[in-house]
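Input sequence (182 aa), recorded before submission:
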Amino acid sequence: MPDTITAVTYTIDPVHSTAGFKVRHLMVSNVRGEFSGIAGTVVFDPENATHSKVEATIDATTINTRDEQRDQHLKSADFLDVEKFPKITFVSKKVAPAGEGEWKVTGDLTIHGVTREVTLDVEGPAPEARDPWGNVKTGISASTKLNRKDFGLVWNMALETGGVLVGDEIAIHLELELARQK
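Predicted structure, token format:
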């Protein structure tokens, strides 16, 4: 539990944060996309960062791969099924140092109603800065890889040349701007 004297609470600034991903397509290239509907809190304890914690939610309906037809398919029951599972969530369970300004943040990720433990490689937080309106901000970057089938995202199509339409490994990259709470 973070020490209330030293812990600082930040909220994720959804306007300046993105959750991006990439996945193999046709076995020849990568398709990239992102979610814009990110919310949550980070409680960072600079005196004992291992006591820090993260809770975040992504609005799955905000998926954008720059192709409306593909986005609609990804929102359908074949993939995210956003009508039944409109949110993707992450709740941290452990924060461990991984080098200067680097962390391993392990927690429960829920996608498509399935929860699995994942570890994020995190850089930051950046030194705090004050924006022109007097708000104190910082930022972190995080990444991980996961197998989409582990989350029940199993739809695919075999190609006549061999292989499949959609790869199983998803690379995830987060860029989060955080606003310090008063």
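Checked by second reader. The longest strand covers residues 166-180.
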